[in-house]
Structures are given as structure tokens and as C-alpha cells.
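Sequence in, structure out.
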Amino acid sequence: MSARHGGQILVDQLRIQGVERVFCIPGESFLAALDGLHQSQIQTVVCRQEGGAAMMAEAHGKLTGKPGVAFVTRGPGATNASAGIHIAFQDSTPMVLFVGQVARDQRDREAFQEVDYRRMFAPLAKWVAEIEVTERIPEYVSQAFHVAASGRPGPVVLALPEDMLSAQAVTADALPASLPGGGASQADVEAVLEALQGAQRPLAVVGGPGWSATAAEALGRFAETAALPIGAAFRCQDYLDNRHPCYVGDVGIGINPKLAERVKAADLLLVLGARLGEMTTSGYTLVDIPNPRQRLIHVYPDPSELGRVYRPERAVAAAAGVFVRQLAEAVEGTRAEAGDWLAQARADYEDWQEPRQTPGALKMEQVIAHLGRVLPDDAILTNGAGNYSAWLHRYHRYKVWRSQLAPTSGSMGYGLPAAVAAKLQYPERDVICLAGDGCFQMTMQELGTAAQYGAGVLVLVSNNGLYGTIRMHQERSYPGRPSATDIVNPDFAALAAAYGGHGEVVSRDDEFPEALARAREAARTSQRPALLELRVSPAALTPRSSG
């Protein structure tokens, strides 16, 4: 072994852990790490704001199931990045954030941009640590990757004192992270199957971490064999092909009222991977606390989450994606008879999918319907937060695992950074970002990142000149008295052109199909972002209400 500076040791550990891409905003506090990246085969994606870099890393973790990695500088860099850490925590996404830190001999003096990261990130991350000794970098990085991906996945934050990182050391590299299989016992599998056989009105809710394309395929086989209705937790609609006869809709914000009643009426709830949080339970109203009226079987990878809010009849500590494969194998060769409970649940979903007309010459229901007709099955759709996403969630049918990237934490600005990360990971797939005018402006500078790295994403900006979600709540609580929700917007199409991309304004339904075709072709051929500014009516607040 020869001496290496800490930045090189760190980057060598990333390579060993299989990291192929990192997202960053450069800073003087981690110059040694940047030097290590210069000599590596790891792609370094330079972003425009630390929040965007952290969101890209989080989206990468969602897409791959492996920790996404971001580097940011100390102080304001870390505070900016905290938005992405919060998303990763609430979405149970594996992620590692490296933060520059002041030199060790300057700590506790409120040195330039000094922050106590253990205290700052404590409620937002699974683990926060500061590496004090250069020789221990491999140990800390290995633990970070183990913690981020094990149990309930989530973000880890490692602070890097500047002098520690630049110091020379001789130290051994750590082995790659090795995680347990995550399966359940045979007794748990048999208990679930016995409960399903005895149920008259069973319903499964799927979501959370630990899934894969293989698990999604196994879920489809198991659901069909067991004649089991499947509902998707909030923003987990791509866990089962929405065309599957057992898919009955999403259990989240704006839930189909008939599906909400079905959740309440179920005599058995099989929850596979979802936490049963506020969004999935309609503000904790669909399932009683602490003792559900339904028989509850809860499958989740972290034992500490089981029974935290709801007391299940049976708690299964297992990765849901692994467990569903166990279930599918256990019932292979059998067939349950599909009855009215499943048939009516699917019929309710089909009816809910029929577009309801909203005000304006350009209607979001028509936009989403056209996307469904022309996009390939594996197109990835991303979004942040805002009422515009209600049309997407209600009317689009997700067909392939990991074709939906959206924050369960409800973070604005997520759609564009997620789209950039998705396009870099899967350049051959169509990647469509849907954003509201307010949501888009949180991170619209990441169009520069897309342009720099040839990420030909397509952005659809729903422009109604409002923070529409808040206006909706105002109209409910204080009708006719809007306050602080009007916004004046730039020329979004011209902004795309300024980055060397394609931009158009669409104002009517009949303009959208050809504009979409032009934008898709421009993004594909130029490998630069394309943007369609959708001028929609401010009266179209949601798919079900106007104001």
C-alpha cells in the first residue's frame, strides 16, 4: 500500500461500492475529493444548486435501488441540500451525502460556514457522522453504504473536515457493502396465505422500498392467482402494471372515493412495504389508530416501523419485494376464483379513469390522455408537488416498474432534477417532467445541467399564474379572498431556448399533439432539453374542482 490523500481514499471507496455517477456543486472545502474524482472513472455531474444535486442523487437511488451520491460544500451548500435529504428520508431512498467541513483545528469558533452537521441533519437522516481520522475513511464510507441501503433505506450524511481530507495516509480499502437477503420465514408466508383464503373482502396496498422489476412481475402473478385487488400507496403507481385486471387504483391524495370506502370495508388489509403514512391513509382516516377495524398484516423491512402507528394482527419484518416473490412461488399452480369484490373494484377504477372536463381551452385531462396514447410503455414521468400532478396521478396508466418518479414528501421542484438523473441513467428512454409554474421555478436552473450533459428531457410546465394548491385551500377555507398565491412568470419557452433547447407555448387542446411530437423529436436529436409551456386556466384547480 502507498500513501494517498484523503480525497483519493474516499473516491477509491466509492469505486469499490460500485458508484458510477455522483452529483455535486464544487466547493473549496472538499478540493481533495474533487481531485480524486478527476482521476477516477466516476462521472461527476456538476449541478446548478445543491438542492438540485441532492434531488438528482435521491432520484438515482430510487431508480437503481443503490445509494445515490452527492457532494456539497459546507454551510449554505449543506442547508440547500437538506431538501433532497428530507425527500430521501420520507421516501425511504438510499443516498449518501458528503459535506465539506471546516478544518479540525478551527471547529467550535463559528468559523467560516461552520455548521454542526450532527445536530442539523439528525432528524433528517438515518445516520450522520464526521470523519475525524483520514485512515478511517474506508470504514466510514463502508458503514454509510450499509446503513443507507439496509432495513428501511434512507439518507446518510458524512462530513469531511478539509484538513482531514487533504492529509496523506496509508490505509486498507473496505469491502463492498453486503446486505442480508430480506426474506421472511415460511411460517409468515403460510400465515398470509391462510388469512387471504379466509377473507371475503381482501385488499393489498403496495409501496415503499425494496422493490424491483422482478418483484413487480411477481406481484402481478400473485395478484392474479389469488384474485387479490391491489392498490398503490401514494406515488407508488408503477409497482404493478395499471392495465393488470387486479390493479384498482392509487391510495393517496385525491383517492377515488369508492376506493377509499373499499379500504374501510375490507376485512383484510395486506400492506406490502408501505408505511401507512398520512397520505396513504387520507389523514389517518381510512384505518383506525391504534387498532384497525380491518385485519391488518403489515410487511415492512424495518421492525421498528411495524406497530409504530397501527397494531397489525401479524407483523412481518421483510423486504416487501422479496416477500411477494415468496408468495408468488408458494401459490404457483393454484388459482382462486375472482368474485364480485375484485370485479367491482376494477370497474370503479376504470370509471375513475374516464376524463372529467375542466375549464379552459387547454385541458390537463386531454394532455395526460394524449401522453398515454403516444408515449412508449417504458417512458419515465417525473413530477414535484402541486395540483397539476393530480391529473397525472388520476389519468395516466403506469405500465413498467420505475416509470414514476415523484416525492412522497410532497417537495416542490423535484421533477426536473429527477428527470435529469433518469435521462442520464436511461438515455434510451423517454423522460417527461411535469411541473407547475411554481414548482418548476424552484429548480429550473437545472436545465443548464441537462444541456451540459446531453440529457434530452422533455418538460411540460403547467402555467396558470398561481400557486394552485394553496389557492385551492384558500377557496375552501376563505372563499373569494385569495392571498399570496398569484405569481408573475417568465417566458418559459424562451428560457429553454436560452439553454440551447427547444421551447414552445401551447394554449389549446388541438395544438398539443403536434407540439409534443416536435418537442420529443427535438429532445431526441439535439440531446438538449425541450419544454412546452402549457397555458392552462387558473379556474381549473383540480380534476374535480374549479375556482
